[in-house]
Amino acid sequence: MHTDTEQFSSWVGKSQRHTDILTLTPMTAMAATLDKSAMSITQGMELPPLWHWLYFLNPARQSELAADGHPSKGDFLPPITLPRRMWAGSRLDFHQSLHAGERLERISTIKSVSLKQGRSGQLAFVCVGHEVFGENGLALYEEHDIVYRENAVAGAQSTEPKPAPEQADFCKEITPDPVLLFRYSALTFNSHRIHYDREYVTNVEAYPGLIVHGPLLATLLVDTLLENISGSRLRKFEFKAISPVFDLNTFQVCGSQADAQGNCRLWITNHLGALCMDASATISTN
Questions:
Q1: Closest CA to 132 of 124, 143, 121, 123
Q2: Bridge partners, 274 (sequence order)
Q3: Is the dihedral of CA 210, 213, 219, 224 positive or negative?
Q4: Which residues does residue 66 pair with via DSSP β-bridges, in sequence order?
Q5: Whole domain around residue 98: which residue ranges?
Q6: Fewer CB within 10 Å: C terminus or N terminus of the chain?
């Protein structure tokens, strides 16, 4: 399958607007999903970092879904025909807090579309920029990287896993299961079948198990960071997916204490010690 980058150049700069209100029910459900028994969800409370992913869902009609459960491409996102899609990473700048009950607007713009040849075949990368405005102006800016790839080839050689750092200042073990993945899929209205349809993910996409959502892993990283560095506020955060995390085994959410500039490294490691997600954050203390 060969696709020319030039044919998608007209999609760069395309934008769309969505509005939403930070209602309490998604926050209550997210707190339950993360097992936060002590968190009280009330009107006016500050939205925890990355929980904005619970909003601006814009559900597609059932008839508009592709075979993988995602909405068919060609409306806002370019109609790239490569079948496998993953959230490759994001970069976020936090400018001010958002609060429960606040009315929001998000402006999304396609920043770039590029195609490359990788070890496993052709790859396509789409970068989407999101500006999220609250009632007091720009609250956060995010660049979201999406990667598309060819179907897995039977017997293809897998890449050598990259080892995770051996030393961490804090670590938290997570046991994923289909219920956790279902609840996060429901919260974000994510119908991508790799997260809940074991027959599809193993037989069609050739993965060994259900895949833990990239944004859920990122949320766990930030949550663990703020739990371990008390009184801190997130200013910048970026993450890159290195290899999938499956529901078959436990994984570790790890990080380092901040340096003098407030910078720290975060990562996800699987049960074999392989690096699955690499991230960095900049924090300030209140």
A1: 143
A2: 163
A3: positive
A4: none
A5: 5-285
A6: C
